């Protein structure tokens, strides 16, 4: 009887996931004329409830930031002028790396959504460029964590861990997402997306507390008037120089030094093991210590050339 129940349950889950495949097949992303493209992004952060406003805003109810996002196929580099030594290299579903050039420090995170789908700037761009990729990553997490999926009234629902995600699509594009707390059934976040021509789009992300929106992020995305040459080359991180890595793709995280770009997980594991050898650890540490951190690495330099060409330095 238990075997029969297991077979029935597995067949039901497989059928449910096949529904999502059909649903996702109809999705389309923003399609620029070329794979390599530069985007300009304006972010507005509003505090809809004064009790959630940080004290350091000096009476202001909103704050703004500007970003340049370089895209090549489905990989992204995000640069914000407010933190000129920092940038993020996002290559989903493999990794997201937050890099600080003047200290040669890097944090690497998983590129998927095993814990939750976070509607950050990185994932808003990813969702616009590759909605199927986002859905596939969330489906994968749901399968691995015995979650539930379903399609009803044209909306896709995926539930696993602490949250349920409801995706609403119209004319082949995701227009709205609701993120619901499983513990209470209350809306935690709501995302509204609007699309224009030439890779233009906007996104409004509302954060809820006690069923009311209390914080709102608004992103306005537009393609740069001209696409600078050399964007694809910016994704070659092999000449980053010696960096200290904290790699959160592993549990617990591993720490190592490496001179050769962003390592794949298997390579990172090998490097971490090699760092246990005193001579190797000493050599890598000497390379990191001797690096001239006042000098921009060639990898960062390529990105900054694009940023300067766009007038965003």
N→C terminal distance: 67 Å
Task: Choose one word for the global shape.
Answer: globular
Which stretches are poorly predicted, pLDDT < 50 over at least 5 residues?
1-15
Number-wise, the strands total 15
**SSE sequence, one letter per element:** HEEEEEEHHEEEEEEEEEHHH
| Strand content range | 35-45%
Compute the average pLDDT: 85
The major sheet is characterized as: 15 strands, mixed
Strand adjacency order, main sheet:
7-8-9-10-11-12-13-1-2-3-4-5-6-14-15
- Cα gyration radius (Å): 21 Å
Considering DSSP H and I runs of 4 or more, what fraction of the residues is helical? 25-40%
What structural category do the secondary elements indicate? alpha+beta
Any chance you could write out the topology, listing elements then pairs?
Blueprint: H1 2-25, E1 36-47, E2 62-72, E3 75-80, E4 86-91, E5 95-100, E6 105-110, H2 121-129, H3 131-144, E7 148-152, E8 155-160, E9 163-170, E10 173-181, E11 187-195, E12 201-209, E13 212-223, E14 242-247, E15 254-259, H4 265-274, H5 278-290, H6 298-309
Parallel strand pairs: 6-14
Antiparallel strand pairs: 1-2, 1-13, 2-3, 3-4, 4-5, 5-6, 7-8, 8-9, 9-10, 10-11, 11-12, 12-13, 14-15
Helix pairs in contact: 1-3, 2-3
Write up what this structure looks like.
With 313 residues, the protein is of the alpha+beta class. The chain is 26% helix and 37% strand. The protein contains 6 helices and 15 strands. The chain has a 15-stranded mixed beta sheet with strand order 7-8-9-10-11-12-13-1-2-3-4-5-6-14-15, sandwiched between helices. The model is unreliable at 1-15 (pLDDT under 50).
